[in-house]
Each structure stands twice: as structure tokens, then as C-alpha cells.
Write a structure and sequence with these properties.
By secondary structure, the chain is of the alpha/beta class. It has helices spanning 6-16, 19-26, 30-44, 60-88, 100-105, 107-117, 170-176, 201-209, 222-230, 276-298; strands at residues 49-52, 55-58, 92-98, 121-127, 141-145, 154-162, 164-169, 189-193, 214-219, 235-239, 250-252, 262-269. A hairpin with a 2-residue loop joins strand 1 and strand 2. It starts with 5 loop residues before the first helix and ends with a helix.
């Protein structure tokens, strides 16, 4: 497949008559320009220039292709202008609701990059585990975990899965040991979810697999759940996406069961989906999170 970027070098040399002058125009080195021209000719299987002491002169084949390359250049300019116009038209305010852990650990990077791309959009962040009514305008976009959103004319996109598994503090493990299997959870003090958090698959799994165990503490927010487990008060199910598996204070007890992965959903209302600012954020966030996830895997 043709590397379209090579056409920039072809046009610069055709217009200036030398790789040296083209290098100054493109702010590249002369050897780089010469290599790019060689690469383009190899890709096309034809010579585009006659190399002479006086400079580079187009061959008949190069002359024939020059108008086509200029047409590509004009199309690229129109594309860039259209993209810039679309970006400038994205204005207004987005009321975005999400849960505490995402807001406090991931949202800063999200807003920084989105703000760079769309500087005329203002963000209002509503941090809550309550399911706000998008149809009633309580928020424009929601980040939700768990079951696929249904009803209420909702439009959604998946943002991937979050793994959950059992954690305890190292202090707790020193005093009580680690449960070696789910069956041993009944011998430990447990930290569970409350409110909407109780409906997360990992919390239901904890209740089912620790029948008869003492769930001494409950919380309706992930961040407080983490704080309670970190304080050494018991064993709890935590999201691996946000919690290191072998940190200085918290330890992952066993690998995350695949069936406990919680799907994440970016949700808006049908009447809002075609608003430029809403569409921009709905497209941006899944792509940004996927890039972040790939970067972590490479590290």
C-alpha cells in the first residue's frame, strides 16, 4: 500500500528542482528527502525524476503523475479544513456523571486530552453511584458499570471490561492469613457492597461464595470500599483496573475470575446523541481508554 506521506516529498522536489531546496521547505535533511523519493519510486515501480548535476527533473512518468499528486494535496487540505471546522463547532457544556474511583483515578487524564482537542467544551462532573435520569436531563452522559443499559431511549457504547478479585491488606494477612480458596472466605471478616454497588457481579459472587461469613462492613462507593480493605478491616472484592495487584499496602489474593469482569458503558439519551459535543465525547472516551489500556499492557 502506498505511503501517502511520500507524496509530500515528491511535490516538494518537483516544485523546487532539488532535494536540498525541498529539504529546506520540508524542514528535513537532504538525505532524508532523497531516501523518501527513492522509496516512492520503488513503491510505484517507476522512475519519477532524472538525477542530474543541475538538480532533479521530472521524467515523463513523473510529469503525468504530478497533477494526481496535487489533487491528493488539495483533498488533504480540504480534509484538514473540514476537520478543523468540525472541531471548532463543538461547543457548549457536557454534564458527565461517573463513579468515584474513575473520577478520582482516571478522569483527570481524560479531561486534559479532551480539553486539548475541544477547548470550547466545558465539563461538569457529577460523581455519584446513583443512576441519574438522562431522559430527565439530570446528566448528558453517564459512565456506568454492570449490565447493558436498557429502556428509556438510551444510546450506549461499551468501554471494555474491568476485572474484580479478592484483596486484603498486608496487615490483615499477617494477622489472619490469606484465604486460599473461595471456600475459606467464610473464615474471614468480609467487606461488601451496598446500594447499587451491591449489584455488581463481584459483590453478588462474594455473598454467594461466603454464605455464613460475617460481612461486617459495607460501602456504597468503590473508593470507600478500597479504603476499608486497605485499613485492614477485612477481605473485599476490588477492581483490578484501578488497584495494583501487589501494592505496598494491598495484596491481590488470587487471579480475577473471568466471570466477574464488569462491563463498562458510556450512555446518553437518544435526543442528545447527535449533539456535536455529545458525539465528540462519546467517540473520544472509548478510544482514549483503549489507548491507555494498550500503553499499560506494553509497560
Amino acid at each position: 500500500m502506498l505511503d501517502w506521506d511520500l507524496l509530500r516529498y515528491f511535490l516538494a522536489v518537483a516544485r523546487t528542482g532539488s532535494t536540498l531546496a525541498a529539504a529546506e521547505t520540508l524542514k528535513q535533511s537532504q538525505p532524508t528527502v532523497a531516501r523518501r523519493i527513492d522509496a516512492l519510486e520503488r513503491s510505484l515501480g517507476t522512475a519519477l525524476f532524472d538525477r542530474r548535476k543541475q538538480g532533479y527533473r521530472l521524467t515523463p512518468e513523473g510529469e503525468a503523475l504530478l497533477p494526481e499528486a496535487e489533487a491528493v494535496e488539495r483533498a488533504a487540505s480540504r480534509f484538514e479544513a473540514k476537520a478543523g471546522a468540525d472541531t471548532r463547532s463543538v461547543t457548549g457544556t457536557i454534564r458527565f456523571t461517573t463513579f468515584d474511583m474513575f473520577a478520582n483515578m482516571s478522569l483527570g487524564a481524560v479531561l486534559q486530552e479532551f480539553g486539548r482537542l475541544y477547548p470550547d467544551v466545558k465539563m461538569e462532573v457529577l460523581v455519584t453511584h446513583e443512576v441519574l435520569d438522562l431522559g430527565a436531563g439530570e446528566a448528558d452522559i453517564a459512565l456506568r458499570g454492570g449490565a447493558r443499559p436498557i429502556g428509556g431511549q438510551l444510546v450506549y457504547r461499551s468501554i471494555g471490561k474491568t476485572d474484580w478479585t479478592a484483596y486484603c491488606s498486608r496487615e490483615y494477612a499477617e494477622a489472619n492469613g490469606y484465604p486460599r480458596s473461595p471456600a475459606e472466605l467464610k473464615d474471614h471478616v468480609l467487606v461488601g457492597g451496598d446500594g447499587n454497588l451491591a449489584n455488581v457481579a463481584a459483590m453478588r459472587w462474594l455473598t454467594e461464595n461466603a454464605a455464613g461469613a460475617e460481612i461486617r462492613y459495607r460501602s456504597n462507593t468503590v473508593e470507600n470500599l478500597v479504603a476499608t480493605v486497605r485499613a485492614g478491616l477485612g477481605v473485599g472484592m476490588l477492581p483490578c483496573t484501578f488497584i495494583p495487584r501487589n501494592g505496598p499496602l494491598l495484596a491481590c489474593i488470587w487471579p480475577p475470575p473471568p466471570e466477574l469482569a464488569s462491563e463498562g458503558w458510556l450512555v446518553t439519551h437518544e435526543r442528545m446523541r447527535n449533539q456535536p459535543r455529545i458525539r465528540a465525547f462519546m467517540d473520544f472516551l472509548p478510544r482514549f481508554l483503549e489507548q491507555q489500556s494498550k500503553a499499560k499492557r506494553q509497560d
